[in-house]
Design a protein that fits this description.
Elements lengths: L14 E3 L18 E3 L2 H4 L2 E5 L4 E5 L4 E10 H10 L20 H4 L5 E4 L9 H7 L5 E4 L1 H22 L1 E6 L8 E3 L4 E3 L4
Length: 194
């Protein structure tokens, strides 16, 4: 496949401060207006920055999923998210991405992996933001044990920290080892760690 390069070493995903401000519409999700940047050049190819209402995603056409999400989580946003509850529950392919570069619902069918949110849907302050969080561009394959166990605990701990501090900048993403497992016909990368 054109997106799966043999020998592509994806063993390290490193974050660094961007040397310039993020595009309009996304800068508010990074501390001091700076979004994370990749230092692994191989992972930086075929990326698209997606600006949503409450978070940004750097999406990869190689991994067919997010490399990171960034959000500015505030106590007020969490209060609004509690008022609306979790209404949206349907995952969808992101129409802003080409069919070749994105994941599709069919990639997850019969895979034994859950669709694990990077930017948590329960944190979203509006119905539109919640719907955006159900885009497969904001999702990585997670085992059910991780998604329903430790990952849920991490999301709750981050929420409590944001409530206590009043606001937080949150960066979330997958890491890939040298040997990458994939699922589905689009060969969506399964992270070795999240």
């Amino acid at each position: 496949m054109r997106h799966h390069r043999a020998g592509l070493a994806l063993s390290a995903l490193f974050w660094a401060t961007a040397s310039q401000a993020a595009p309009a519409g996304c800068a508010e999700f990074g501390g001091d207006g700076q979004l994370p940047v990749l230092t692994n050049a191989a992972l930086g190819q075929q990326t698209v920055l997606l600006c949503n209402d409450a978070f940004a995603v750097l999406h990869s056409g190689i991994s067919h999923g997010p490399l990171w999400t960034a959000e500015h989580l505030t106590e007020e946003d969490l209060e609004r998210s509690m008022q609306i509850g979790r209404v949206v529950r349907y995952f969808h392919a992101d129409p802003r991405l080409s069919f070749e570069d994105r994941a599709e619902l069919s990639d997850y069918r019969a895979s034994s992996y859950d669709r694990g949110h990077m930017a948590c849907s329960a944190d979203e302050p509006s119905l539109q933001a919640q719907e955006q969080s159900f885009s497969l561009a904001n999702v990585v394959p997670q085992t059910p044990e991780l998604n329903e166990g430790i990952w849920t605990g991490v999301e709750m701990a981050v929420r409590r920290l944001a409530e206590r501090e009043g606001e937080l900048y949150v960066v979330t993403g997958p890491a890939f080892g040298a040997s990458v497992k994939t699922i589905g016909s689009h060969r969506v990368f399964v992270p070795s760690a999240t």
